[in-house]
Amino acid sequence: MKILHTADWHIGKIVNQTHLTEDQNFVLHSLIELIQSEKPDVLVIAGDIYDRAIPPVEAVDLLDDVLSKVLLELKVPVLMIAGNHDSPDRLGFGSQLLKAKGLHIEGRFQKELQPVVLTDEYGPVNFYLVPYAPPAIVRDILGRDDVVNHDTAMQAVIDVIEKQWDPKARNVLVTHGFVRGMADLEYSQSEKSLSTLESLGGADYVDVNRFRRFTYTALGHLHGPQTAGCERVRYAGSLLKYSFSETNQHKSVTLVELGATGDITLECKVLTPRRDMRKIKGQLHQLLDPAVYTGTTVDDYLHVTLTDEGELMEPMSKLKSVYPNVLSLEYEIKERCAGEDKTSAGAEYKQQSKLELFKDFYSDITGLTFDECKTAIVAEAIAAVDAEDRGR
């Protein structure tokens, strides 16, 4: 069976007051083209379909358009769960009616965890759809007092599944959360914490060993495509970059092929976005030089770091005249040498002249040398002020 695993669409996302719906429309229709060419047996979406519980109308319309094309035109069934950004009730509305069309949605966590069963030439594949739910909800629904965090909540869920399943069958779990093995995971700034207690012993995390008996576990939540310490437990990652911490990630969807005995092969399918998200750095005049930006995609979403000294006149306006989608701007701050003390008490400031004090201040803030040209300008300014004071 060929499974196309994706997650974290975050339809309706806004980054630095910029709506990304057009970019999401572009990449989702690229996904539709990939489905046309690869002809998977099922599309699995592992949560965070929308970016917030009450999505804008444009986001709802876009999801409706994409699912209609996949289900009605391409005849590919879709398995979808709610993530921590989704409203379980809104996402799951009408799910019973839509099953006849091949759309299986699990929005709110349910006590009865019946699989969605799809078949191929080798027989059935059981898909267990487990939407995101806080541990307190899992504890209450399952009546398990031992559920105290996300890890014990997931074990309680798996206990329910294993009471009814055939362990020798091909069993796929679809869920959403922080799953961690021995390997380090790659995090992004756009990923929302799952617990207010995450600093207390890693209450967010689920041990990857919980999933060792599943043929494949399709995860959502982390935006970088990666395994969670085991090849059979994988994050597909988001379709687009949603923060500048993701600039080095290569976004993709995961094509999973299940063999007759549960053997798997994985392939990452890269989708080209309408615009990339990048960081650039340099002095303002350099970044505005055609020799620098010619040949690059100037309408990418950019974070700009300026390395200029002193004040600049309207740098954002000048940058946007060349790069229309600058989303954030910062100035590089040179770090002070380790152990250097520039307090007034330590510098014997009372014995220093105004010029010496200003030179120390400049070097301390910028980390740069106060050269002769600057010295002459500041000395002239100080002399003028002193002369004005004496004339009063």
Supply the key terms.
6-stranded mixed beta sheet; 11 helices; alpha/beta; 3 domains
Explain what the structure shows.
By secondary structure, the chain is an alpha/beta fold. Helices cover 28% and strands 23% of the residues. The protein has 3 domains: 2-270, Purple Acid Phosphatase, chain A, domain 2 (4-Layer Sandwich); 277-331; 349-390. The protein has 11 helices and 19 strands. Strands 6-5-4-1-15-16 form a 6-stranded mixed beta sheet. α1 (21-38) runs parallel beside α2 and α10 crosses α11.
List the helices and strands and how they pair.
Elements: E1 2-6, E2 14-15, E3 18-19, H1 21-38, E4 42-46, H2 57-73, E5 78-81, H3 88-92, H4 95-98, E6 103-106, E7 116-120, E8 123-129, H5 135-142, H6 150-162, E9 170-176, E10 178-180, E11 205-207, E12 216-220, E13 226-230, E14 233-235, E15 252-258, E16 264-270, E17 277-282, H7 284-287, H8 290-293, E18 301-306, H9 315-320, E19 326-331, H10 354-366, H11 372-390
Parallel strand pairs: 1-4, 4-5, 5-6, 8-9, 9-12, 10-11, 12-14, 17-18, 18-19
Antiparallel strand pairs: 1-15, 2-3, 7-8, 13-14, 15-16
